Amino acid sequence: MNEPNHPAEPSYLANGTTLRSWLTTTDHKRIAILYAIGITFFFFLGGAAATVIRIELFTPKGDFVSADAYNRLFTLHGTVMVWFFLVPAIPTTLGNFLLPLMIGAKDVAFPRLNLLSWYIYLGGGLLTVAALLAGGVDTGWTFYTPFSTIYSNSAVLLAALGIFVVGFSSIATGVNFITTVHMLRTSGMHWMRLPLFVWAMYATSLVMVLATPVLAMSLLLVIAERAFGLPIFDSRSGGDPLLFQHLFWFYSHPAVYIMVLPAMGVVSEIIACEARRRVFGYQAMVYAMMVIAVIGFMVWGHHMFVSGQSPYASMVFSFLSFVVAVPSAIKVFNWTGTLYRGQIRFSAPMLYALGFLGLFTLGGITGLFLAAIPIDVHVTDTYFVIAHFHYIMVGGTVSAFFGGLHFWWPKITGRLYSETFARFAAVTMFFGFNFTFFPQFILGYLGMPRRYHAYPPEFQLWNVMSSSGAVVLAIAYLMPLGYLGWSLVWGARASGNPHDATGLEWRTASPPPTGNFAVAPTVTDEAYAYHEHGDTADHPEASPARVQGR
Amino acid sequence: MSAPALTPALSEPWPDARRQHQAMLFGLWIFLATEVLFFGGLFLFYFRARLVVVTGFEAAASASNPWLGTANTVVLLTSSLTMAMAERALRAGWRGFARRCLIATTALGLVFLVVKGFEYHGDIVDHLVPGPGFRFTAHGAVEFWCFYWAVTVVHAVHLTIGIGLVLRLLWLDRRRQLEPHWMAAELTAVYWHLVDVVWVVLYPLLYLVGRGG
Lengths: 550, 213
Hints:
The structure holds two protein chains of two kinds.
Chain A: H1 19-23, H2 28-56, H3 67-102, H4 111-133, H5 147-151, H6 156-183, H7 196-228, H8 241-274, H9 282-295, H10 311-339, H11 348-371, H12 373-379, H13 383-413, H14 419-446, H15 460-490, H16 544-548
Chain B: H1 17-52, H2 54-61, H3 66-92, H4 95-125, H5 141-174, H6 182-208
Helix pairs in contact in B: 1-2, 1-5, 1-6, 2-5, 3-4, 3-6, 4-5, 5-6
């Protein structure tokens, strides 16, 4: 069932080497590479801002940058990381590359739209960089009114326009992916045989197309108020500043799931392969993702517990926020269940995936703290919140992104990286992350507010720990640039299926040819057929996968 | 509805016209769902203002120009009719009739924009632009006109894009490429109807509020 399907035509990388052939390509694999370049740039741009922030917070006094510069730095960090890295990171790189391969298609449904979405991303990115060059923005990534509309003297218009534009690239990707999954599955690829990564892309795309337009409109209204003087959110003339928060979080809470659902998909693939096990409770995993995508739309009010919204609304939002934790917990249990009696290989992707598991769980559990209104009131706008969402987005999504990058690196580039260096980087990232962000839970609980460049001296110990951890974390992020870059030139050639994994993407050559497959593949089995049904580790010798393992 | 016998212009990765047709329509409907949510944000603003600052809001609403608004509604509904006829005519193979319908659609779209321009002129003369010299002082009055300007400009942008898409169809027709692109004509028509439906919702919100006595 897993026989190779290698065509004779050259790989997608060899099909034209001019700049023009890349900039006009409609091949989903090349577009994934184009996106990867943009995303890497923005990741390190946002990371540079974070570095300056952590240097400033090393000492209690605001002695490294001014308060105003600090405001611009954390706004730059948040804006770039959320909209130009975390939201597009996995869907547009791994998703673009793998989605058609995993369902046995030649390409996504609308290849030209796919290319257009990259140019839109580029345009939005340029506007945001222009905002940075124009002096930056000081509103925070949340653009709360009336500060963003009336009082801020920074380049709000340019930045809001950049994010407005980049939203349409999300929408285009979402429309493309949904249509692709519906219309281009190869014969035998039933819905309940889809790899969980494909389900994750599908759920993410649904959230993207339903949430992003609301962000577009809320930013457009900010632009209308700021540029054209329409007092839409101005309470002096009957407007409502809170309306902006409702519109903004109606997008931005689901956006958390846009960031983390793809990570869940990546981790499911890695854990199943590296534990040599069928994913435990496949159907529950699918339903859990869809439930997260739906209920994720009904919890935005938990960002507004102290905004003065109705206490009854707060109670409902609190309850629903607890409810949305249930499917996430189901997923954590099922990943753990998949590991149970698996034949685990502690390869680099697996280390990243296991790191995700721990960090996501901690981020999720502290999310329950924040869903409880009394605790949220106590720690609102403190470092507790910062630590919580960094556990989800950095500990969760970024770990999974790096895991997926390593897992599919041989497929994407046709080269093998140094496993030793990669494992070292994965472990370094896990420890560096915890050193950076765990102290922030304590800081927040002790009452240190977010978004200040100076703080009382009694908080210094925890801040020094956090900043020191950030050094480790930065090293862990820079290391892959070295050994992955090295592998591009000197790495050993990868076979079509170096991990001995199931999944259609492993049946074709590494790197895949432009047309993906020689003949459209046929699927006759469920996903993750690492062992026969009922064949568990009680009889490991009966499992062919074990014999062929590395 | 079954695909016509015309040979369509296929694009990668589609093996046959039926699948491509299904996928293109499906993708467009998802896009239209995003449009509904896009306008949804503005409608939320409208309903909040109308519920919370109702007196000033409705008093200000009565200053809109229902005659031009009604005329434009007629123009736009007619343009949807000609657009629908163009698309159906193309499938039936009546190319000349389809072209005339597309020209009529473009013309009606332009008429809408011109009428809107006269209406904007009147609004400016009547001091209905939020800012210094705004005609009303009641609390909430300016919110109606914020909505008016924001939503009509966004709608006009959508209509302008629609006119561009119809002009593209006419350009394809000049190159005798329209018949293979009947799918593009259908998609353009569906988009055009959405812009029209949005206006049908806007019409009572903009021109009938505050006039019920």
